[in-house]
Design a protein that fits this description.
191 residues; alpha+beta; six-stranded antiparallel β-sheet; 4 helices; elongated
Amino acid sequence: MNILILNGDRDPRPGKNRLYRGTYRSHPSYCYGLPDEHEINQLFFWFLEEGGELGVVHDLQKARRFAQLWNARRTPPDRFEVIEVTDGNAPVREGTFIRFDLSSAYNNSLLVPGLAPIMHPVDLPEPVLESNELISRNFAPQLNRHGLFETFETAGLCLRAMNALQQRSPNFFEWGDFQPTGLFVIGLGIP
């Protein structure tokens, strides 16, 4: 089981989709108001050790406890969610299915900006800009209330279109090994 502990925007700059609840969100941190020996900080050290830079952990009980301790220190709706992530259409044991992100290593995402078209002048060939606008017009309306795709098939089609545009204009998108990723809230979130 691949688990993420996520909350809110990781990047507060303008242009982000405020509805987005995919893989590119904030991870819990060290609690500076408490000593290293406190349970929340001990769980933070576990999180760093097991999750590394990507924050993917595998111990559901510890993940839930860490999120619970952080959530007790916050006020709604600022809450951490424990999320199971799956490759593609893989089944999950439990949870509320919030649908599909286009994610790399269960971390970065192509859906953070909500597939918004480029609104400012850029020095790119017209066919590249038109292709991006077509992707935006076709796929942005298909994002659900969480900023994710409802179906694996739609997520896959969007990724294929984005890959084609990336072939025409390298570095148009932040790139990596992106794939449709299923997200299931399995604790302490608001489904």
